[in-house]
Write a structure and sequence with these properties.
single chain, four-stranded antiparallel β-sheet, binds uridine-5'-diphosphate, binds magnesium ion
Length: 153
């Protein structure tokens, strides 16, 4: 089953929304395969946001992502990358649809609650960047037969 990579950004820690965001993923039926708190630094952020380093807002983004520790997660589920991107919503919280995480919890384009991988290929790269193999647990919760039909597992 597929995996995706999530960051609960510093604004989410600061605003005490950690539980609300994680609850949404759990209620959906996604499995937490890895979770930890860490302090991001410029080196890892320059890798993670390599596609944005030349943008004018990059210094502000860097500062924002280092403002407090973050919570990083690996979530598991069928088609989990597109499922989670749909749950997260558009990059700018003001444009994100109501019912999405960004649409319901934020007002900013930068302070937009979570990062979520945009493709299975990037998910694999990001998981390897932020987690050691032994920090990811590939267990099968007893709830699985209630979440998926046999031919979906
Ligand atoms: N970002 C920003 N201004 C922009 C575009 C992006 O501050 O105009 C920030 C925002 O926090 C976003 C992150 O840079 O989540 C990564 O941008 P990306 O285009 O990858 O958006 P995402 O995949 O997070 O929706
Ligand atoms: Mg992105």
């Amino acid at each position: 089953m597929e995996q995706t990579f999530i960051i609960l950004k510093p604004s989410t820690i600061t605003r005490s929304l950690v539980g609300d965001v994680i609850t949404r993923f759990q209620r959906k039926g996604l499995i937490i395969s890895g979770i930890k708190m860490m302090q991001l630094n410029e080196e890892i952020l320059r890798e993670h946001y390599a596609h944005l380093v030349d943008r004018p807002f990059f210094p502000t983004l860097l500062k924002s992502m280092m403002a407090t520790p973050v919570i990083v997660m690996v979530l598991k589920g069928k088609d989990v990358v597109p499922v989670v991107r749909a749950m997260v919503g558009a990059t700018n919280c003001r444009a994100a649809a109501p019912g999405t995480i960004r649409g319901d919890f934020g007002m900013s384009g930068q302070e937009n609650i979570v990062h979520a991988s945009d493709s299975p290929e990037n998910a694999a790269i990001e998981i390897a960047r932020f987690f050691k193999p032994e920090e990811i647990f590939d267990y099968e919760p007893l709830t699985m037969p209630a979440i998926y039909a046999p031919d979906e597992l």
